[in-house]
Amino acid sequence: MFDFSLKGPWFFTNFSFLLVFGVFISIYAFLPKSSLWQKLYVGLFSIFFYYKSSGLYVLLFMAMIVLNYLLAQQIDKSEDRKTKKSLLVLSLLISLAPLMYLKYSGLLLSTFNDFFHTRFTVSSLFLPIGISFYTFQSISYTVDLYKSKIQNSKSFIDYAFYMTFFPHLVAGPIVRAKDFMPQIDAPIEMKREDVNRALFRILIGLGKKLILADFLAKYVDMVHVDPTLYSGMENLISMYAYSFQIYFDFSGYSDIAIGIALLMGYTLNENFENPYHSKNITTFWRKWHISLSSWLRDYIYIPLGGNKRGVLYTYLFLMVTMLIGGLWHGASWKFLLWGGLHGLFLAIHKLYLTYNNRIKSPTTKVYSLLSIIITFNAVSILWILFRAVNLNSAISSVHQITSEFRFTDIVPFYYDRTEFVFMLLFAGIVVFSPVVIKNKIQHFFSQIHWAVLLLLTIIILQIILQVKTHEIQPFIYFQF
Known about the structure:
The protein is 71% helix and 0% strand. By secondary structure, it is an all-alpha fold. Helix 3 (58-77) packs antiparallel against helix 4, helix 6 (156-164) packs across helix 7 (177-184) and helix 11 (290-304) crosses helix 12 (311-329).
């Protein structure tokens, strides 16, 4: 139980976790709500969960929590603006230093070697799971406190509870103090509908990850070993498969996290709102990884100046924000390019909106459908950069799609990979099905009798066990 392996971190889809969580929630249900015992119980389990995910790096995490809490107390007490600002800067340095060293030192050294022809050794460092998420969470607390947007927590246990709450700890959503801290002493009273909704989100998340994402991943991984070995059609299908894979993988994690938190009486904000239904790139970023995109907006884009300093600076700040967003995902030039291209697309759309104020665009269903198709394909093309092993591999994949594409290849592909084709089509149906249908299914689940719910849970879990791949893949966003 207390063993840890860097090659096999603990995560929600481990059946050992589900078993331990079943014991955890059974004990949790009997503890007095909002009591010190309940907070300590959840806090200790959260630390144990993180230890099982990142080993002794839990000590680094705890040190960050203690130091930033002490600095937050001083920021709250200080009446001198310069002192408060100095304390804020120190807190930001403490939060960012581990992330910058563990995640970006390799990229900086290798880039330095390339430019100056030096031979500094670039060591491969272990990146603790969730470090990017809890770093941003820590920063948001300190900055909001400095700007008097939140009240300081006088209780170290409450602050540690907020920072370590395990459902969102290792892969988000990024939780803001203003949304979560008030719930610590006032978790919701659970009703039957809440329990049903929580179980529904957990089951849907498991299904998204273990049935859809992991199945699609097998083909995507095969193609991206060397895209030049596959035709343009095969690379194009891999592109669409990865678009669905990353959505089901990450939204599946968010569903499980939201469901587990709800089962404990806490509400986490939605992280995805049918992003592939978006009619433009701006809407896509309002619906995809909402906690990150809103964090980048509130703590980078707006503090830089947002749209308050003229057109030129607006586009510059937008580009800088998306470049940082790209680097947040990984210390690699491919992620920087991915973020930069998204920034460029956002700038083009903003320019189009400026022009559109003078010439009204059509609002027909055909126009809306074309807008969704164009946006989805633009996002999917950029996902190639995200998934590729490196920048050269991404270029090779795009080259295959644009130069080696033949429609006739779809026939042998179908006969060779019939099972995969049907799974890809099913994934597309799930992604693009109307929101009203999804809402009706969730509403149905929230109203059914507990006995029926239990039966459906057993059936769904059995389907997952039968269909899932033998080797459960870690969640994609664990690497960030």
